[in-house]
Automatic annotation (TrEMBL):
Keywords: Membrane, Transmembrane, Transmembrane helix. PANTHER family: IRON-REGULATED INNER MEMBRANE PROTEIN-RELATED. The keyword Membrane applies. The chain crosses the membrane at residues 12-35, 137-159, 180-207, 328-348. This is PepSY domain-containing protein. InterPro entries: PepSY-ass_TM (IPR005625). It holds the Pfam family PepSY_TM.
């Protein structure tokens, strides 16, 4: 039994000193990104905010988006309609520029700012370390190791020490000896933030291994076929104009992705609520080929259970599913991997010095 304890301690130690570093970086960048909508909106009110936006109806927004996109046909890469912190329409052009327009008057408001670019870069670093091909696997694998091995081994050791006196395991002593102080910090922060960190790490792994997650979640599916699958097979024909301008009482168009080449498709993405709101994330997606044939169509209302569950990983990961309190908890939890890394290293250093003596 003592041999098993030693192995578990070694696993906790070496994972803490390796993937704990990556988890600390992910935690800090994620914590900063939690408040991206509010910070970006505050710094870019002229680009993102519209006076009396609530008085602008859906048809006006859709017609403005289509009109603006057709003004530079062939040069448009993506069109983004009002969503989250953005109340304006933005168009990403193939030359790399992104310009913002008023959703009613269609007046040019300006070009993407440095602060917006900063948060876009921050998200890339958070998800891929700035290395899209390799970095996403480093981040995703570290998140899962942190979840299934680092946190669980930490809980195992905490339980072995405090199972007969749980209150002591949850209590912080503020005036012990220096080496015990770091140990106390490590155990208290570790146990109090165990569940939030487990959830954040597990959902974080989804963005790298989403195919594996969806495959595993397919056990919750009742049937492989949906109403929308059958509808899509009929290959209905739409013009892009018709597809963009049609209003949906349930979903709001939030983005149009244009074909990258002659064989590419138009992709239209929809969202239940344009702006940040607690609750389930409900989406709809449609793909049209360049001849106007409906190729794929998916919707939360008719989607398979594994896709419905997978759609919630983002709002859970960032805390939005339970509102502002959830986001605040994720923000605080983002600092915990670094706190645990520092305090754990201090505990390890103290033991090393003791052994040398």
């Amino acid at each position: 039994m003592q041999h098993i304890h030693k192995i578990i301690w070694k696993i906790h130690l070496w994972l803490g000193l390796s993937c704990g570093v990556i988890a600390s970086f992910s935690g800090l960048t994620g914590a900063l990104y939690v408040w991206q909508p509010e910070i970006t909106s505050m710094l870019n009110s002229k680009l993102l905010k519209v006076e009396d936006f609530s008085k602008i109806n859906e048809k006006t927004i859709l017609s403005s988006a289509y009109f603006l996109a057709t003004q530079n046909k062939g040069e448009v890469n993506k069109v983004f309609l009002p969503y989250r912190e953005q109340q304006t329409i933005s168009i990403n052009y193939k030359n790399g520029k992104t310009l913002y327009y008023h959703p009613k008057t269609r007046v040019l408001l300006g070009e993407k700012s440095v602060s917006i670019q900063f948060f876009e870069t921050l998200l890339k670093l958070h998800r891929t370390l700035g290395m899209p091909t390799i970095g996403k696997y480093v981040i995703g694998t570290s998140a899962l190791l942190f979840c299934f091995f680092l946190l669980t081994t930490g809980f195992y050791m905490w339980w072995k020490i405090y199972k007969n006196n749980l209150s002591k395991g949850f209590t912080m002593k503020w005036k012990p000896k220096k080496k015990r102080f770091y140990f106390n910090l490590h155990k208290v922060f570790g146990i109090y933030f165990l569940l939030p960190l487990l959830v954040i790490a597990f959902t974080g792994g989804y963005f790298t291994y989403y195919k594996t997650y969806k495959s595993a979640l397919s056990i919750f599916n009742s049937s492989d076929k949906t109403v929308l699958d059958e509808e899509a097979k009929q290959e209905k024909i739409f013009s892009l104009e018709e597809a963009v301008l049609q209003t949906d009482g349930k979903y709001a168009l939030r983005a149009i992705y244009y074909p990258k080449d002659s064989l590419g498709v138009y992709r239209l993405r929809y969202i239940k609520d344009r702006f940040i709101k607690a609750g389930f994330r409900k989406t709809k997606e449609m793909e049209l080929n360049q001849q106007g044939k409906l190729r794929t169509l998916s919707s939360f209302d008719f989607d398979s259970n594994n896709n419905r569950i997978a759609a919630q990983f983002y709002p859970i990961h960032i805390g939005e599913i339970v509102g502002v309190l959830g986001r605040f908890l994720v923000f605080i939890s983002g600092f915990m991997p670094l706190v645990l890394l520092i305090t754990g290293f201090k505990v390890y250093s103290s033991k090393r010095k003791k052994l040398k003596r």
